[in-house]
Amino acid sequence: MARNIVPMIHVPDVRATVAWYESIGFYLAAANEDCGEMDWASMTYGDGRVMFSAAGRASDAARREVDLYVYSDDIDALRSRLDGRAEIVEEPHDTFYGMREFIVRDCNRFWVTFGQQLP
């Protein structure tokens, strides 16, 4: 039996969330619409997956209840591609635990950290 954890994040507008994540390199794997409104979606990034469901609330809090951590290659090139597409919380930097990371805020104000293992 395969074991995996896939986060499901409740957001105010699933369609807008899907569009934002597609704009930074995620792919829509599956979605559900009810009466013309997208109420659930599953997206992939490499081998990773995240689901979005309707009924979340907007927030102006400094941080939300959950952050996404996305393992990626070539963090600096990815940061360049996101210029103007995402609010940057932290620019690329090396961490004490051996990762090169940067953090953006998505369209729902959740933090998304992109990390790459340092050599």
UniProtKB/TrEMBL annotation:
Gene3D superfamilies: 2,3-Dihydroxybiphenyl 1,2-Dioxygenase, domain 1
Domain Glyoxalase/fosfomycin resistance/dioxygenase: 8-112
A family per Pfam: Glyoxalase
SUPFAM superfamilies membership: Glyoxalase/Bleomycin resistance protein/Dihydroxybiphenyl dioxygenase
Name listed for the protein in its UniProt record: Glyoxalase/fosfomycin resistance/dioxygenase domain-containing protein
Species name: Luteimonas gilva
Signal peptide: none
